[in-house]
Amino acid sequence: MIKILELFGGIGAPRKALINLGVDHKSIDYVEWNAKAVRTYNAMFDNRYKPESVVCYNLQPDILVHGSPCQDFSIAGKQYGGNMEDGTRSSLLFETIKIIESLGVLKPKVVIWENVKNALSKKMVSAFNHYLSDMEALGYTNSYQVLDACDFGIPQAREGIFTVSLLGDKIFDFNRLRKSPMRQISDFLELEVDEKYIIKQPSMIRRLPDQPTLEGTFGGRMLEEVREYVNTITTKQMRCPNSGVIKVDNQRWRYLTER
């Protein structure tokens, strides 16, 4: 049985992946500060966790998975940076280093870190390189690659950097990943949705794909129509840009639902 520790655990995607793959495992603990994500996790896995910070956390897993906050790396944010001295949300990445150090000889065999592709940009890469160096100093061998959800059957154009660090000299081979054809978004969309998902805000209606192009307003940016796939899914759809909008009929458009 594989024991995993879920830091910055969100809704539990890594654990769900192990379930889908039929891998015998045990989640020895889950840490997430966002109350809504914790409620979702508890609903999915019948747990009773409460919001909690990763700071000063201590446990002993085989696999440590951490998708630390991306806001200050993301090109959509203000790009404050992620080095420890930056003191940003993205700098919480280095709390994981402290946790691994505290485990001593009981360090996890595998550490997986996922974040936005912009962590590799010229402005942000110093924090990423710092993380790689710290992991090497702890005895890990790192490998990383930018992966796109579309290459794994999911109709979402979402690229992220995945870093796999193995304790010792072995190197994780990304070429062994099994890719699959992208399913169409139509396989997932609900045909009938609650009225609350219908776009009614004037500021959003003006940006619908069937409206005249805006001039000088928010850079003239328009919403994109969902066809074969969606853009990166975020928690807030009531903004431009978002994941895309769906045409209900000639008069109405809607947002994505949580489901």
**Mind telling me which CATH architecture of the largest domain this is?**
3-Layer(aba) Sandwich
CATH homologous superfamily name of the largest domain? Answer: Vaccinia Virus protein VP39
Quick one: how many beta strands?
Answer: 10
- Count of domains: 2
Spans of at least 5 consecutive residues with low confidence: 86-90
Order of helices and strands: EHEHEHEHEEEHEEE
How many alpha or pi helices? 5
Measured distance between first and last alpha carbons: 31 Å
Task: Describe the secondary structure blueprint for this structure.
Elements: E1 2-7, H1 13-21, E2 25-31, H2 35-45, E3 63-66, H3 93-103, E4 110-116, H4 125-137, E5 140-148, E6 156-157, E7 159-167, H5 202-205, E8 230-231, E9 246-247, E10 253-254
Commentary on this structure:
With 259 residues, the chain is α/β, with parallel strands linked by helices. The protein folds into two domains: 2-176, Rossmann fold (3-Layer(aba) Sandwich), CATH 3.40.50.150; 184-259, no CATH class. It is 19% helix and 19% strand. The protein has a six-stranded mixed sheet, with helices on both faces. The chain has a two-stranded parallel ribbon with strand order 6-8. Strands 9-10 form a two-stranded antiparallel sheet. The radius of gyration is 20 Å and the shape is elongated. The two termini are 31 Å apart.
Could you name the key traits of this structure?
Rossmann fold; alpha/beta; 10 strands; 259 residues; 2 domains; six-stranded mixed β-sheet; two-stranded parallel sheet
Summed up, what is this model?
The protein has five helices and ten strands; from the N terminus they run βαβαβαβαβββαβββ. The protein is of the alpha/beta class and 259 residues long.
